[in-house]
Amino acid sequence: MTLIASFVIFLFVYALFSRRLERTVFTAPMIFTLGGVALCEVVAGILADKAEIREALRATFLRTAELGLVMLLFTDASRTEFRVLKTIHNLPTRLLSAGMLLTILLGGLAARLVFPQLTLWEAGIIAAILAPTDAGLGQIIVNSPRVPERIRQALNIEAGLNDGLSVPFLLFFFALAASGTEGEGASLTEFIVKQLIFGALIGGAIGWAGGQLLGWAGRQELMSESLQQLGVVALPLLCALGAEAADASMFIAAFVAGLTVQSGFREAGKHSIEFTEEWGQLLNLGVFFLFGIIVARDWAGFAWTHWVYAVLSLTIVRILPVAVSLMGTGLSRGTMLFMGWFGPRGLASIVLGMVYLEQETHLPGENTIRLTVMATVFLSILAHGMSALPGIAWYEKSVARLGADAPEKQAIQGKA
After folding, report:
1. CB 237 within 8 A of CB 202
2. Which long-range contacts (CB under 8 A, 24 or more apart) does 56-65 make?
3. pLDDT tier at 416, thresholds 50, 70, 90
């Protein structure tokens, strides 16, 4: 109750000054993370001798985080317009294919270099958790008219899809790492069939059937317009329940459902976004608030190596793959640097880290993975938040120096 009360009071105070804060470098995720850090001692003191309550809160947060990621994956997939992937000259496609694969590869190599005690698969877990970028943390960028629209859309689409695409890699590395521990893990084939294939089949079936039913009910005017949003939101929840019953991945199921629901109900993306903007924001800020508490609680456990990897992950591991994937597009070096830097790590990495690393998996490098992910996300929240407005100003001047025929200044094809 104390934790909930602290968050609600903090949320109310933030709402009072939110308009003024929007004009500063202090983003909402940054404020709520630092708020959690500031309140850690108070909360920790109250709950210090209440192990049962603390464990119940951890379990509740873990389940909430799982459902939060399920909703995020479904929303991102359902709002994907495949037409847009072609109209901006495949910039998102480059970022999501070659860019993401290189990011995971380079992230794993960096983890092995900084943490030689980790196995190859444990290094892959770190790389996969930190591969997704966060559209929420980069909201200032993707909403700024001072940034060319092609660049904004490419970053937004990348952030919307790379969290779902990173899940199979994480599950794969996790299975390989767990199979090497005594008494842990099933065969890799069994894992792939259950987690990946069953998850995709469950999500595809629920998404397709749900989309067809929603589309039919809409055409027959059987469905109240005010309840269409709830009908759409029910689908990812069904995916979570169905996947859990089949021992499949609820994340894979939700992402596939978001892709297939569009076949019968094109407005699914609009309604899921409406729900996310209204209620998802509350959940997201709650996650950042609790993340701040966890960071402060474990602050003494951080070593210099965790921060070294965090810096590498946010710079070389991100910027170099982006630059390589965008070669041949004609984009300027300034654009490549801008797009490479503004790939913040946030909600998806926090949730994936909580789901897979706060459980008793008995991996030898579990503590190293957990602290590294926390350090990277915490540094990203601060660094990307503080650099957003100065970065936009610098990039605006960089684009202004380009010729009129520069790709950055070309209009998006097919747009009215």
Report:
1. no
2. 57/3, 58/358, 61/290, 61/354, 62/354, 62/355, 62/358, 62/359, 64/283, 64/286, 64/287, 65/287, 65/350, 65/351, 65/354, 65/355
3. very low
Angle in degrees, CA 132, 247, 251, rounded to 5: 20
- In angstroms, the CA 302 to CA 113 distance is 18
CATH architecture of the region 28-47+64-403:
Up-down Bundle (1.20)
| Burial of 233 per CB tally in 10 Å (0-12, 13-18, 19+) | buried
CA–CA gap between residue 273 and residue 199 (Å, rounded) = 23
What are the Cα distances from residue 54, in Å, to 6, 42, 249? 15, 14, 27
Residue 185 pLDDT greater than 50, yes or no: no
Query: In percent, how much of the chain has pLDDT > 90?
Result: 28
How many angstroms separate the Cα of 160 from the Cα of each of 156, 334, 344, 408? 6, 23, 12, 21
- Give CA torsion, residues 238, 258, 210, 71, to 10 deg: 30
Report the mean per-residue pLDDT for the chain: 82
- Structural domain boundaries of the chain? 28-47+64-403
Tell me how far apart the alpha carbons of residues 256 and 73 are, in angstroms, rounded to a whole number: 9
Tokens at 354, concatenated: 């909580």
The predicted pLDDT at position 182 comes to 47
**Terminal-to-terminal C-alpha distance of the chain:** 52
> Which residues make Cβ contacts (< 8 Å) with residue 103, sequence separation at least 6?
127, 131, 317, 318, 321
* DSSP element (H, E) containing 233: helix 228-245
> What pTM was estimated for this model as a whole?
0.83
Better pLDDT: 178 or 322: 322
Q: 81: which DSSP letter? A: -
Query: Which tens digits make up the pLDDT trace of 187-220?
Result: 566 666 777 788 889 999 999 999 899 888 888 8
Element (DSSP H or E) covering residue 240 = helix 228-245
Mean pLDDT, residues 141-155 = 85
Looking up tokens 């809409």 gives: 218
